[in-house]
C-alpha cells in the first residue's frame, strides 16, 4: 500500500484500484495555494494512472475543510489574492473533471471553499456531524468562477440562492433532503 505524503495531505493506495486522498492540515484543513497546488498535481497523477479506478476524499481532522485560511488572508496582497483564486479555480475544476469516480467522506463541516470538495465529487457520504455552506457573504468574498460554476451545476437554484445569500450552513439532514449528500 504505497503512500505519498505532503505536509497537508496523504495519498494512499487502499488496494483494488481505490486511492484515498486524506487531508490532514490541522486544525481545519484551511485552504492555501500550496495545498490547492499539491491537490491539483495529485489529481493530474490520478487521472493519468490506469491502475487507479476510484478516489476517496477524506479528512483526518474533525471537519472536512473550513475553507480559506482567513487568518492568513488578512495579510494577503494582490499577488496572494490572485494565487488563492488561481488555486481554487484550478484545484476544484480538476477534481470536478476527474475522469474516475470520486467519493467524498464528509465527516464534519465543509464550509466556503471547503464545500467544493463535496460538490466536486460524484458521490457524497455524510455523518451526523456533517454541515455544508457557502460562508463567503459573511466575510465579503465572492466565489471564483470555477467554484461558482460547479455550485451552479451541482445545487438547485433555490439551494444555491439560500446558501449564497444567507452564508449559513445547513446540517446533514437538510443536505441529505436537498440531495447535496447522497447518504
Provide an overview of this structure.
By secondary structure, the chain is α/β, with parallel strands linked by helices. The chain is built from 7 helices and 9 strands; from the N terminus they run E-E-E-H-E-H-H-E-E-H-E-E-H-H-E-H. The strands form 2 sheets. The chain has a 6-stranded mixed beta sheet. It has a 3-stranded mixed beta sheet with strand order 6-8-9. The longest helix has 20 residues, at 78-97. The model has no long low-confidence stretch (mean pLDDT 93).
Secondary-structure map:
Layout (H helix, E strand, L loop, with lengths): L2 E3 L3 E7 L2 E6 L9 H16 L5 E6 L10 H4 L4 H20 L4 E5 L2 E3 L3 H5 L3 E4 L4 E3 L11 H10 L2 H10 L3 E2 H6 L6
Parallel strand pairs: 3-4, 4-5, 5-7, 6-8
Antiparallel strand pairs: 1-2, 2-3, 8-9
Amino acid at each position: 500500500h504505497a503512500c505519498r505524503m505532503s505536509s497537508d495531505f496523504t495519498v494512499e493506495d487502499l488496494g483494488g484500484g481505490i486511492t484515498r486522498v486524506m487531508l490532514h492540515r490541522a486544525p481545519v484543513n484551511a485552504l492555501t495555494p500550496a495545498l490547492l497546488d499539491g491537490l491539483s498535481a495529485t489529481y493530474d497523477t490520478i487521472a493519468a494512472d490506469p491502475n487507479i479506478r476510484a478516489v476517496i476524499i477524506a479528512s483526518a481532522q474533525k471537519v472536512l475543510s473550513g475553507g480559506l485560511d482567513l487568518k492568513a488572508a488578512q495579510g494577503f496582497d494582490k499577488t496572494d489574492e490572485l494565487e488563492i483564486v488561481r488555486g481554487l479555480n484550478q484545484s476544484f475544476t480538476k477534481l470536478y473533471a476527474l475522469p474516475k469516480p470520486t467519493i467524498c467522506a464528509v465527516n464534519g463541516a465543509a464550509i466556503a471553499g471547503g464545500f467544493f470538495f463535496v460538490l466536486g465529487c460524484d458521490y457524497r457520504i455524510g455523518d451526523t456531524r456533517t454541515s455544508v455552506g457557502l460562508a463567503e457573504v459573511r466575510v465579503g468574498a465572492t466565489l471564483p468562477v470555477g467554484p461558482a460554476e460547479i455550485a451552479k451545476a451541482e445545487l438547485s437554484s433555490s439551494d444555491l440562492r439560500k446558501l449564497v445569500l444567507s452564508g449559513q450552513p445547513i446540517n446533514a439532514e437538510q443536505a441529505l433532503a436537498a440531495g447535496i449528500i447522497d447518504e
